[in-house]
Amino acid sequence: MLDIKKIRENPEYYIAETEKKYTTVSLKDVLAIDNERRPLLTEVERLKSERNAESKKIGDLKKKGENADEAVAAMRALGDKIDELDKKLKDLDYKQTEMLMHVPNIAPRSPEGKDSSDNVVEKDGPIPFDYYTKNDDFARVDHKTLGERLGIFDFERGAKISGSGFPVYRGLGSRLERALIQFFLDEHQKAGFEEFTPPYLVTRNTMRGTGQLPKFEEDMYRCDKDDDLFLIPTAEVPLTNLYAGEVIPESELPKRICAYSACFRREAGSYGKDTRGLLRLHQFNKVEMVYFAHPEHSYEDHEELTRFGEKLLEKLGLPYHRLALCKGDLGFGAAKCYDLEVYAPVEKKWLEVSSCSNFEDYQARRANIKTKINGKNTFVHTLNGSGLATPRVMVGICDNYQQKDGSLLIPEVLRPYMGGMERIEPKK
User: Fold this and answer.
1) pLDDT band at residue 74, thresholds of 50, 70 and 90?
2) pLDDT tens digits, residue range 3-27?
3) Does a cis peptide bond (omega within 30 degrees of 0) precede residue 388?
4) pLDDT digit string (tens) for 42-68?
5) 4-101, which class in CATH?
């Protein structure tokens, strides 16, 4: 959530910057509420001061043995007026906060632009995007066809039991995905991340803390009972909120944590997008990394976090590049974001496998996560990124590592997790 004090100081700038992102609430409306609220606050403070004076007057009159009825009546009238204005203030505060919950973060360090066509390729990975295919003498097949031939995916049975967007991994496919997850977690551990195993169901307030609610409720899976719990769209939600309402010692920053989790996304706005195979799912597995960063160093930490995701792709031997997202394509709460995309030669497209975002204090302000700097409580900066999401990494492996004989070569770093197996052979 944006800081209303900073908005007041420079309203034109904040209005212009937030309007570069898609938003249903204008800061102009927020400021209109603020302009109504501030005189009320001044009046309440004046009346409370007047009430204190009347209270002292009553005390003095009683000490002198004089009649204080008139002063008591005046103080009661002031109290009634204060109660009335306090209720109005409370209502305006709630309205202003709810409106701010719908206003996106600003992105002063992100490239200008309106949509994905304005994103900037900042860096290519060390492996050229056509490295595995430039000398092909065979026709590669898509991951869905390959998976069926190898017996590692079962999309039909997944659809039978849950509907589209719920894949089933089977046999060596299950083992390969588990190898990916274990490899990712082991690399995080080596890099000093603390691993957590969070709940998959969280409260409404938890979802508000990281910015999924109230704006994106239609994209979430919600329990229908009275407990009002939501299935997590990413482990970012429970991980970030682990420290909601807490003060993290400055000496612990940056605090690096991670978790494996299943992720659940209704994605009501995905109609018309490519939903074949593993490309767009309602349930998938992912390892998430979260940083709680010192406000003065969060952008250096953002580079570190992103570079860690890149190293995972390099160890897997997958062609990738890094995109700097323009302001118009940024996520709701992000101040800056890099997308890591793997090239899938059969799909002939780049597939996002990680979004590495710096939220500055946007999430920390919503979830009330602070640190103490020079004796003063200050909101931390929060960062997160996928390290990594398994489905599109699996597509990248299928597209890039399939062989002429129909087998799938297993990336070398995954072979220890596969019992030394070097390839998955087609079913006989």
Assistant:
1) confident
2) 999 999 999 999 999 999 988 888 9
3) yes
4) 999 999 998 988 888 888 888 888 888
5) mainly alpha
Non-local CB neighbours of 336 within 8 Å, separated by 6+ positions: 107, 109, 110, 299, 302, 324, 325, 330, 357, 358
Tell me the β-bridge partners of 349: 344
Mean local confidence (pLDDT), 251-271: 87
DSSP 266-331: --GGGTTS--STTSS-SEEEEEEEEEEE-TTTHHHHHHHHHHHHHHHHHHHT--EEEEEPPGGGS-
Distance CA 359, CA 383 (A): 6
Residues 6+ apart with CB under 8 A from 143: 153, 277, 278, 344, 346, 394, 395, 398, 399
User: Is residue 367 a contact partner of residue 246, using CB atoms and an 8 Å limit?
Assistant: no
Amino acid present at 128: P
Residue for token pair 């394509």: 329
Closest CA to 176 of 395, 406, 355: 395
Residue 293 tokens, joined: 């960063």
Q: Which DSSP category does 254 fall into? A: S
Please say whether the beta carbons of 236 and 205 come within 8 A: no
The domain segmentation of the chain, as residue ranges, is: 4-101, 116-424
**pLDDT for 131-178, tens place per residue?**
999 999 999 999 999 999 999 999 999 999 999 999 999 999 999 999
The DSSP symbol for 233 reads S
Query: Of 74, 135, 143, which is closest to residue 399 (Cα–Cα)?
Result: 143
146's CB contacts (< 8 A; 6+ apart) are 398, 402, 408
- Taking the domain 116-424, which CATH number applies? 3.30.930.10
Span 354-371, pLDDT tens digits: 999 999 999 999 999 999
